[in-house]
Specification:
467 residues, alpha/beta, 2 domains, 13-stranded mixed beta sheet, 10-stranded mixed beta sheet, 13 helices, 25% helix
Length: 467
């Protein structure tokens, strides 16, 4: 997938809606009966049902977050937590996917990406994965790439060993909610010594109003491996609240490298309350590259736990808050071993009264000597009514460390705009050029198709911004 896929991308590519009459067959609100029904539909083992019920109990008992955006308008009784748009599940033939669902993903370039650039692809629509495939050359090397529902049936021992061990269901209220109603997602296992030279991708789409999506991503990477995994997501706008509370767990064994890239472009109706975390082994590298746009409220802080000596975490991210949006994003890294390295670069844009916040944690444990860490968070405010905040939290319990932290907030420079317009460039184009330069260090690290998409999305957000 290259620029030609996204050059004609417009707002309708994401806001297009299919018929959602199927949602009438599913209930609003979360109950024990619903949790039991989900488990029954999926023919799950008893331990998973017990886990779901325990998670539901924790969800009902735990408080809402005491920090970040105001969630008072999120009414849990007005969300549909589980819905299926089709009886087709996990088709490995694209032609078997229902035509309306297939056209939705084709608008977003998914089939073309698979054929040209991807080792495998999964596509989830509402609560179910409708399509999943892996190229035979990687399957022959022992790579497992499945929907999590399928992996629970086909690989029960390894699934149970890792599922919600990185993000336990008592971590916070939305982790508990996820544990109760999770559905679909990705299970990826890379056996020792396998290095994929093509990325894998999953795309998650919500279609109906008031929908909830709770996909689970479980990635297990053995020693001496390399893999790139990409997630994309979107939803149309209805004027009714939607909820995304997915969970990403990544386990990286020694001397391996994992890059997780994502562009989250939910509609402004959506509360994006996602949890992402990795445990990183000796001499391994975990890279997070992400862009957050679209959703009305985002609370997302990918976390790396550097458990092995010499482990490294790189966190690169962009957040764009336009009118009516609160993007509360950042990164968390816990250095739990010697000789670990951290690099965090976060950039945000605020426009139209939008609020973007960097919320981060850097923790160095007492035994973690010789840690090197750099944290950089830059904000660009595009008008007089928008806001940007920074909430860094550093807990350093070892003196033998090198830590650097830099935070900058600025506005568009009038002199730069004048210089560009004096050379025949329109004011809107001049602003776009400056913004692209500001974001370029992050966007260049995204996979090509998502870098192009991100640039186009920013162009769409910036349309009509002059004046």
């Amino acid at each position: 997938m290259n620029e030609f896929v996204f050059q004609d991308l417009d707002r309708d590519s994401f806001d297009h809606k299919n018929d959602a009459s199927y949602q009438a067959d599913f209930d609003y609100g979360i109950t024990e009966d619903l949790v039991r029904q989900i488990s029954k539909d999926k023919n799950e083992p008893e331990w998973m049902l017990e886990f779901r019920l325990d998670s539901l109990k924790k969800f009902l008992e735990m408080p809402m977050p005491s920090f970040g955006p105001d969630l008072k308008d999120l009414d849990f009784s007005e969300i549909v937590y589980y819905a299926k748009a089709s009886d087709v599940k996990n088709a490995n033939d694209w032609d078997k996917v229902p035509s309306d669902i297939k056209k939705t993903f084709e608008r977003l370039g998914i089939p073309e990406a698979e054929h040209k650039f991807l080792a495998g692809v999964g596509a989830q629509y509402e609560s179910e994965v409708v399509y999943h495939s892996l190229k035979k050359e990687w399957e022959d090397l022992g790579v497992i790439f499945e929907d999590c529902d399928v992996a629970l049936q086909k690989h029960p021992e390894i699934f149970k060993k890792y599922f919600m061990k990185c993000v336990p269901n008592n971590d916070h209220k939305f982790a508990a909610l996820h544990g109760a109603v999770w559905s679909g997602g990705t299970f990826l296992y890379i056996p020792k010594g396998v290095k994929l030279d093509q990325p894998l991708q999953a795309y998650f789409r919500m279609n109906a109003p008031s929908q909830g999506q709770f996909e689970h991503t479980l990635i297990i990477v053995e020693d001496d491996c390399e893999v790139g995994y990409i997630e994309g997501c979107s939803a149309p706008k209805y004027g009714k609240n939607a909820l995304h509370a997915g969970c990403v767990e990544i386990f990286v064994a020694k001397n391996s490298k994992v890059r997780y890239s994502s562009v989250e472009n939910w509609s402004k109706d959506t509360y994006n309350l996602n949890t992402k975390r990795a445990i990183v082994g000796k001499d391994s590298v975990m890279e997070w590259v992400g862009g957050n746009m679209g959703s009305g409220v985002t609370m997302l802080y990918p976390c790396s736990i550097l458990k092995g000596q010499g482990a490294r975490a790189d966190h690169l991210g962009i957040a764009f808050a336009n009118a009516g949006q609160f993007q509360d994003t950042g990164a968390k890294v816990i250095c739990a071993a010697k000789d670990t390295k951290v690099n965090i670069v976060m950039k945000s844009l605020s426009k139209g009264g939008g609020i973007s916040s960097y919320r981060g944690l850097l923790q160095v444990n007492p035994n973690a000597e010789n840690v090197t860490a750099s944290v950089e968070c830059d904000a660009l405010i595009l008008d007089e009514i928008s806001r940007s905040d920074t909430y860094p939290d550093m807990k350093i319990y070892n003196d033998n460390v090198t830590i650097a932290h830099e935070a900058k907030t600025g506005k568009l420079n009038a002199e730069d705009i004048f210089y560009l317009t004096s050379r025949g460039i329109s004011e809107e184009e001049a602003k776009a050029m400056i913004i692209n330069g500001f974001l370029e260090p992050i966007i260049k690290e995204l996979p090509m198709e998502y870098a192009v998409e991100m640039n186009r999305l920013i162009e769409l957000e910036m349309e009509g911004s002059v004046g």
